[in-house]
Amino acid sequence: MFSPVSARATSAYSQVGVQSIVDGASPHQLIKMLFDGLMVSVNGARGAMERGDVGEKMRHLGKAVRILQEGLLSALDRERGGEVANNLAVLYEYCVSRLTLANARNDLKLVEEVAGLMKTVAEGWNDMGTQGGTAAAGG
After folding, report:
1. What's the family (predicted)?
2. Would residue 34 count as lying in a domain?
């Protein structure tokens, strides 16, 4: 019923470590972490679909949708980001709809489509960070 003390301590330590990383991250780094998490989830869904693991597929796709909606989409500053932020919002919403459809149809091609689109955006975001650019679009 209870986990061993060492397991609870390790879990708590991990939580503190993750929280420390998030607390110390710049806004640009936070968005990068969201993209990284999104790609991990999308690739996890791809693998689960290839293995026929429906439960894992659903878990990964659900997490990817949450990252898109609650992370990337909600981080957009449409006033300051202008057309770029609005275009990203349309893209993120499109990806949510494609992942939802991929889940319902068990369609690997739709997941791969989203992976390709988000990889391109994530690479652009990473390039902005290495060039010292600012995040006017907010994601």
Report:
1. Belongs to the FliS family.
2. yes
